[in-house]
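Fold this complex.
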Amino acid sequence: MKNISHISIATGLLLLILSSCNNFEQVVDVDIPEHKPAISLSAEFGSLDTALVLSVGRSASILASYEELELDVTPEIKLFRNGELLTQDFYCEYSGCIHELNQPLGSAEDTYRLEISAPGWETASSTQKMPPLPVIKDAQFTHEGTLDPEGYPADEWAVLIQDPPDEENYYAISTLSVRREFDGTDTLLYISNYTPYSLDPATSVAYGASSAALILSDAAFNGSEYWLRMYSYPQDTSNLEFLALEISSLTKDAYLFYKTFTAYQENELNPFAEPVVVHQNIENGHGIFILRNTIIEEVSF
Amino acid sequence: MKLFYPFICFALCFLLATGPASAQQKFTISGYVQDADSGEKLIAATVFDLRSKQGTVTNTYGFFSLTLPADSVDLLFSYVGYEAQKLSFLLDQNLQLNIRLSQGQILQEVEVVAEKVDRIERNTQMSQTTVPVEQIKKLPALMGEVDIFKTLQLLPGVQSGGEGQTGLYVRGGSPDQNLVLLDGVPVYNASHLLGIFSVFNADAIRNVTLTKGGFPARYGGRLSSVLEINMKEGNLNKWQGEGSIGLISSKITLQGPIQKDKTSVLLSARRTYVDLIARPIIKAAAKAEGIQVRPQLYFYDLNFKMQHRINDKHRLYASFYSGSDRFFFTYKEDGFGYDFESSGGINWGNIISALRWNWQLSPKLFANTTLTFSDYTIDIISEFKETNTGLGETSAFSAKYISGIQDFAAKVDFDYLPLPNHFVRFGASAIRHTYRPGALTINAEFEETQFDTLLGSQNLHSFEYDAYLEDDFHWKRFSANLGLHASLFQVNDIYYPSLQPRLGLRFMATDKLAIKASYSQMRQYINLLTSEALSLPTDLWVPSTERVKPQKSWQAALGLAQTIRDDWELSVEAYYKQMENVLSFKEGASFLLGLESDWQDKITQGNGQAYGVELLLQKKFGRLSGWIGYTLSWNWRQFDEINGGKRFPFRYDRRHDVSIVATYEINDHITLSGAWVYGTGNAVTLPIYQYNYYYTTIETLGEKNAFRMSDYHRLDLSITFFKKKKRYDRRWVLGAYNAYNNHNPYFILATTLYDPLTGDEKRVFKEISILPVIPYFSWQFSF
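Structure:
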């Protein structure tokens, strides 16, 4: 009798263990509020750009398939500058659209309005003003002039920004290098963009669609001169043709978008991180319209 | 100094109020009530004069003082579960008595009178629960590890965080708003194994009291609760021991006299041994690959306590706790022409010590002076060393991240019992906090480079000064606990003073039914930066600063308390709590703080409200014991920088929370225990729509915490077989956590299901569970 009870307990425990070793996840019904689909838009125009590239689609419920994020009709795109139509001649294929300009967009502080319409869809639009061109008083580069936080030698960068007073300003900074290399038959030019890093607490690294930059607001130095010190991993200076800092002024919407989009990407697979709402600025639609005014500041090396 | 004038006036008023009430000569009977077998002091034992119907209870150190008119007295000493003692004599002088009560049957004729004093309805204090440690030890436990925190989570008004976590969310507060005191010393990280187990070894614990509201003036420094845990003092009469061997840990406790009736010690130790079991397997597997691996994955606790009775008026206590978690790996590889060795891991733990001096200054005045030290440290270590055996060159690198908090404190508390209907407490304390927000030391030695550097934040110091005065007085059917707590916090050159009034009222509507009300204000000057979802050792304690204001709260409660059929206690309480300057991470901030940024940039402050009704029906003793608890509650937060400034439910806003806990002794050899819990699902934030940003799909969230995960429910069961052996007693405990294997959600996410047969894809929400049914056993012994 005693043996039977022992065997029963052992069998029971074994069954408990076996029955517990599956189904750690289950599909559940959640009562999600109905979503009204709208045109979505992603556009980042720089003052030095001669090609205006944007992406157009539509929003859909979170439980919709990814195919449903494509717009099933060709959109009509209009770009206005200071209220006048600049162009509506965009070539679109799938979700990507492009327009080639005869000259760069320009650094004048003009107001741009982007309108996207499509049959059966409410017109989506966004209006942004080109931010002022950054005023750079000095830019320096020292090959292996500093150490990174882990103690390795790093190239040092420094830029002296003259910030305009009485207004909020936002900046994005990356490095630009042109390298000449001979592969045995031809001489090739390589153009590279790097993201510098900084221990300055006002800065953070932000990601866009295909590039990254160091971004900062002028909250800590509004209206004054500010030396921003940065570092990047050492590069071979022997075959460099050109080295520069690419410094852009951003709209506030652009700064908020880059901050939130970066946090969104970093936390995407982390169920314990605080959730992020990515900043948007499209009326009657979703997405972002960004303007940046860029200056290229060459440094000696 | 301005702040202290009202405090002094208040003190004088009390002294006047507690002065001689009549010209009749009075004498004071004072002394200690203790366990006859072990010499342990009995807390809240009743001392009652059957003639004058006046009585009192013992304080935390077993001390009592009762001042009565010169006359004959029939003094009854009683404590639940102990045989009462009655002493009759003529009181014609001050008297010192040390009473020893034996465990056993209560005399029926004195029980009714004796228990009246410490019944729930007689106590002015509301929103306070004491769970006997013996009852805690009988309840089912996750993996057989008896856990005080997990038992407290079964009480109304106390909620657990994530599945299996020890965090206590008391009346809408967060875990850092609980003041956890071990022998009066704050414990900053009360959990092991990422919050799965608490640091308190139940075998070394004497009593556990949780106060959720109506805070008496002697408590301060946290918004939501005070959890007082007292270690056993050690048997003064004989040597005793107990221990257990379980699935994941073993523990042993020894206690006994060094000098009988004068000096005793207690030593308790616990260690998990997953690494000891897994090490040979891991080593063998690694050896086959030509690698040497040494894993260390364990936690341990050590408790030590010593008491020494100098004489009847002076006693000394020293208590010490050390506990640590260690997740560490060492890896060694001997290659062709090189040796490579690396190690890394994370260690965290508390060291707590207290030196206490009890001094009976007079028959009516008792003083307790305490010096305490508390240290919580976390180290994250990464090291490697590579030797080129041919060239004799060595490269080495080591990095160590250190963070934590350290306290030195001194405090003095006085208990003054001028009359039977007054219990005055006053005292003061000073704490020096040292915060280490995070520092990284790096040492490296390469071919041509050597460096040794220190990065990160510097240590930060703050000082916290507190003083309090309270009187618990009784008048006919009324009683009140009136008090004032004054505090001053200094960090750098910033001072935060505050006066916090406290009030508790009780009115006996009938002989067994009391109506209670309370109001209390609290301040909190130190904050824990932590994820809402997970307790990590990297959670950081930081002070209030110029930018980060102290947290504030006020709480009001109204309730009924009644004893039913002498062995059931019923309490119903409604509460409202308003919190200001509570902390939250900003949207998108990661709870893993980097060295590169100021923690103050990642947080935001806002307000919170919590309100609800709690019901507790409890039976503490007898063959059937346990309780039924129910909480109906609402819990809100509002931050300017979160959810567009709109109010939202706190993650652990739980509309309904039910617990049914029962222990039934079938006979002297078999005991059955069970606990069933049910709670409304946690509030979560979910994405509601999506769109593309170039080639990245962005999911956009709905309102903060606007959705609910599935409701939580779980049944834990255990059965204990007891047998008295020739030299010792033994218990076999078998049990199961989550006995019916409910898939309680830990988190929820939107994901895509792919059907490999049809190629169809479907977007769905999935809930992820982590703890299925977990059977366990343990073998326990005592002698």
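The radius of gyration of chain A is 26 Å.
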